[in-house]
Amino acid sequence: MSNRVPSPEISSAANRGQGAVYEFCEFRLDCGRFELLRKSQPLRLERKPMELLILLVSREGQLVSRAEIAERLWSSEIFVDTEHGINTAIRKLRHLLHDDPSEPRFIQTVTGAGYRFVASVSTVVPALPFPVSSPPNIPKAIAVISRHPRRKQVAWYVGVGSCIFLALGGMALYRWRHRPPEVRYTQLTDFTDSAVAPALSPDGRMLAFVRGGNPFLSSDQIYIKMLPNGEARRVTDDDRAKYGLTFSPDGSQIAYTVFDSSGFSTYQVSALGGEPHLLLKNAAGLVWLDSQRLLFSEIPSGIHMGVVTATATRADLREIYFPPHERGMAHYSYPSPDRHWALIVEMNGEGWISCKLVSLDGGRAARQAGPAGACTSAGWSPDGAWMYFTAVVEGRSHLWRQRFPEGTPEQITSGPTEEEGIAVEQTGRALITSVGVHESALWIHDGNNERPLSSEGEVIGGISPSFSPDSKNIYYLLRHGEASGAELWRTEIDSGKSEAVFPGTSMSSYDVSTDGKQAVYTTLAPGGTTQLWLAPLDRSAAARKVGNPGGRWPRFGVHGQILFVETEGNKNYLERMNPDGSNRSKVFPYPIAEFQGVSPGRRWAMAVVSRTTDRDFPSVMAIPLDGGRARHICTSYCLPKWSTDGRFLFIPVEDPSRTSAGRSLAIPVGPGESLSNLPVGGIAPLAEPSVVPGAKSVRRADLVPGKDPEHYAWVNTTVHRNLYRISLP
Q: Which residues form the OmpR/PhoB-type domain (predicted)?
């Protein structure tokens, strides 16, 4: 990784085509206007891919090395992972041009060297002999025009032109003087893997973080280092899922949230290391308001998590904010320096949502703060004048700021690298965040072999891929651009051939029918409304809407019925309907927190039930669709998955970490998808195969089962992050 960061300056790569207009196939590239057209229709393309396209087209047929691309596109920038940036730009160009890397029409990859533009290019307008950003030298012969008899008219034009020139120059000077200061990066850690979730001690001398790539519910360990140049030192040996690091007011303890079979609890460990001890049960995202009072999240019932304040003994407990929907979970809260306000980071059934600003004094409704996107962390300037956020907007996680209380959100960072986590320094002049990149691809395990499968793009790991019923194909959601939606793709296992199933259709979830002929999927309208669709996989007929807007997470049920999640009031219910939208009804009368899928034989619906008769904490249940007794699957939260033929049920029992892919149990299922051999209370974390006769361990927690324990796929996400101090504009 090079030590460069994106700046807003225009790259010199664009100047190679200075004013030229090129044509190739059905495309027209206007370098002067920075515009690409297909059949006279302008195409949306971000700056870096456009600059790369200009560079390649202007060098038609010639090899352009990756080193030259990096130098021309990012030479003036002080922090960019150029390798990732080049890969991303190439991927976006190929997607826009509908170019197949295995049989390229436009961009050919020269392995280990660079790229070559192989299409025939026509030059419609040649490149200008001078840079477009500066005027050419005026020949002396033209200067004698001023002595022409019409010199008064010419002088008038010259005067008007001078006024315009001076006005534009004045505007440019004003903008230059009032431009935002450059954002500068100072590296604080230098791991070959990752460091995330930064937290600063009250005196600003100690930095705590998680050594791993996952900031939320990570089984990796907590480290601490003295700033600015101390060695990182491990302080925990705790494999439980954790998040939300914070220091005690005196800086001697580090508190963090643990999630296990008993729910969410806050533990604390000495900053010098040692055994963690319980601070508060049913408490998450805890921070100190002062030496006596705490601000934290708790769950009164189900999984409905809200923010409260109380003492360490839970005395004087007072509710601050609870999400309106019972599926809402407010995981983090960040109090303002004056302790009158707090920023809330929360998620719903779809994932992280925009942050909220709430009053700690009460009497005011919560309102959105920060950009409209998936907000994952927040913070305050020491004087309370600024609010800071990391949020995913148009597919990228970056730093944002907003003046308190009702300013306009402003983006601080940009580019191919992403930021996660916020720890604001005492001076208010800088903050610490985790900076890095990630890439996701689909891999397959076939006996003793493992290999990548997916096409170029980012595989969406939050929506599990799925094998076709015959296990010959795998389906998955793939996103090609930062701002583009996810399309459903299909890859043949043997040949590796990949294709978009419904090109141009963005979706948020999907399911494939048992006969492999149809797909049901969810689309998301700009206003956030969802709609279910049914379409043949061979595109022999147009997709058609199914039911009314609002349905989510569709799955095929028995006899072609469609199961889906519907919200009524502040609760979610599992409902079903016929393929034409008729005979709509609830599958069972009680609400659910999460719909996880359906067994291949369509006998069981897998769901997280908010409350059962024998336990308060939500249970992962297998609920019979034709009536009968539901079965507990896990003693804690888990995401069970079925083999394609329904003979095995895979249950994760060990979480993945920086050093391990985790572990699952492949449990044999009886005839007719019988689950009678499961323990009555479900499978416990860390369970061994002996818990169920015939069970096998699979050395991976997050997987997509194939036909048996030797055949499966997974989304392989490579993460590289380190902690940086970022100067604030």
A: 19-119
The secondary structure of residue 194, as a DSSP letter, is: B
637's tokens:
């939260």
The residue out of 539, 569, 586 marking a domain boundary is 586
Q: What is the pLDDT of residue 19?
A: 65
Is this prediction's pTM over 0.90? no
Note whether 379 and 391 are same-domain residues. Answer: yes
Residues 293 and 414 in one domain: yes
In angstroms, rounded to a whole number, what is the distance separating the alpha carbons of residues 367 and 554? 31
Q: State whether 313 and 416 are in the same domain.
A: yes
Q: What are the pLDDT digits (tens) for 227-240? A: 999 999 999 999 99
Of the listed ranges 150-159, 432-441, 461-470, 493-502, the least confidently predicted one is 150-159
Reduced to 3 states (helix: H, G, I; strand: E, B; else coil), residue 439 is strand
Q: Is 581 exposed, middle or buried (0-12, 13-18, 19+ CB in 10 A)?
A: middle
What pLDDT score does 350 carry? Answer: 85
Give a yes or no: residue 36 inside a domain.
yes
Q: Among the ranges 35-49, 161-175, 243-257, 546-560, which has the highest mean pLDDT value?
A: 243-257
Residue pointed to by tokens 């309370």? 384
Mean pLDDT across the chain, nearest whole number? 86
Residue 406: is its pLDDT beyond 90? yes
Query: For residue 615, what are the contacts with CB-CB under 8 A and spacing of at least 6?
Result: none
As a whole number of angstroms, the distance between CA 546 and CA 558 comes to: 17
* DSSP, res 180: P
For residue 131, tell me if it sits in a domain. Answer: no
DSSP per-residue letters across 567-634:
EETTEEEEEEE-TTS-S-EESSSS-EEEEEEE-TTS-EEEEEES-BTTBSS-EEEEEETTSS--EE-B
What is the rounded CA–CA span in Å between residue 428 and residue 364? 28
- Cα of 490 vs its chain's centroid, Å: 22
- Same domain assignment for residues 465 and 560: yes
Question: Residue 258 is encoded by which pair of tokens?
Answer: 């643990």
d(CA 451, CA 618): 37
| pLDDT on residue 144 | 30
For residue 342, being part of any structural domain is answered with yes
The two tokens of residue 38 are 């297909």
- pLDDT mean over 9-25: 59
Q: Are 653 and 664 in contact (CB under 8 A)?
A: yes
Q: Alpha-carbon distance 321 to 313, whole Å?
A: 20
Residues 551 and 652 reside in one and the same domain: no
Amino acid at 453: L
Instruction: Report the distance separating Cα 483 and Cα 485, nearest Å.
Output: 7
Residues 630-659 have pLDDT tens digits of 999 999 899 999 999 999 999 999 999 988
Find the domain containing 496 and state its range.
451-586
Structure tokens at 505: 């259709």
Give the total number of structural domains in the chain: 5
The two tokens of residue 600 are 């291949």
Q: Are residues 164 and 294 in the same domain?
A: no
**Contact call for residues 683 and 634 (beta carbons, < 8 A):** yes
Residue at 134 is within a domain: no
Whether residue 173 is found in the same domain as residue 206: no
Helices H / strands E in the chain, number of each: 5, 56
- On whether both 578 and 501 belong to a single domain, the answer is yes
By the 8 A CB rule, do 107 and 90 touch?
Answer: yes
User: Would you state the pLDDT for residue 171?
Assistant: 45
Of 470-484, 538-552, 646-660, 689-703, the one with minimum mean pLDDT is 470-484
d(CA 490, CA 480): 15
pLDDT value at 409 more than 90: yes
Look up the CATH number of the domain holding residue 455.
2.120.10.30
